[in-house]
Amino acid sequence: MMDLWLIGIGTGNPDHVTLEAQRALRQADVILVPRKGAGKDDLAKLRHRILADAGATGRVVEFDYPVRDEALPYKDRVMAWHDEIARRWMCAVDGSEGKVALLVWGDPSLYDSTLRIAQRLDPAPRIRVIPGITALSALTAAHGMTFNTLAGAVVVTTGRRLRDHGWPKDAETVVVMLDGSCSFQSLEPAGLQIWWGAYLGMDEQIIEAGPLAETGPRIVARRAEARAQHGWIMDTYLLRPEGLD
């Protein structure tokens, strides 16, 4: 039976990789490295750097990530995409037994579907999860702030839900991930503060913070410029009413 290790590697800083993760990488027999297309070579290069730093000696197998079918409804599109990723994992492993490691950006438990995809594999592997530093931790660290107000409620959500449903009920702090459309623009900005960061933990890291009315347009412009420069972007932001700490 195959052992599948899902190893969180943080948000782009090789120093985010924990000692537990490094030890697991040294013990792995096979290490899967995804290639995510043109313009994203630096993501694969970072994974190879992490393997070198950890002293990994297992067989490294690269595979190409599939592209989502934008013609399908959202949930059908994601399900079909996950099915294809699982199929490509199995092709890449090609019947290998022993310990197979997959490096996961951030942490496998937070707005990441690696665990769901792993459950599609047949035969089912034994799954081990090694946690990593999340984008939430990297964002609050970059801004030198706390994740929550004193005993206050926090909602972690997506740009799609923020845009479709507005400010979550009873939340003092809202953290938004997976937002390719700057959905904070759908909110009434008066009285809201935003803390935003892209390429968190990487040399390319950029951050912005301030009143949403003033900072929002600046974020939109910087995000578009950075995406054009690098060919990809991963960003996260936190919203909170003014005067709360």
Individual helix count = 7
Largest sheet: 5 strands, parallel
Order of strands, widest sheet: 3-2-4-1-5
Oligomerization: single chain
- The general outline is globular
Give the SSE string.
EHEHEHEHEHEHEEEHE
Low-confidence stretches: none
Helical proportion?
25-40%
Kindly describe this structure.
This protein is an alpha/beta fold and 245 residues long. 34% of the residues lie in helices and 25% in strands. The chain is built from seven helices and ten strands. Helix 1 crosses helix 2. The protein is globular. The termini are far apart. The model has no long low-confidence stretch (mean pLDDT 93).
Task: Annotate the secondary structure layout.
Layout: E1 2-8, H1 19-27, E2 30-35, H2 41-54, E3 59-64, H3 74-93, E4 98-104, H4 114-118, E5 126-130, H5 135-143, E6 154-158, H6 159-165, E7 173-177, E8 192-198, E9 206-211, H7 212-230, E10 235-241
Parallel strand pairs: 1-4, 1-5, 2-3, 2-4, 6-7
Antiparallel strand pairs: 7-10, 8-9, 8-10
Can you give keywords for this protein?
five-stranded mixed sheet, alpha/beta, 245 residues, globular
How would you sum up this structure in a few lines?
This protein is α/β, with parallel strands linked by helices and 245 residues long. It is built from seven helices and ten strands.
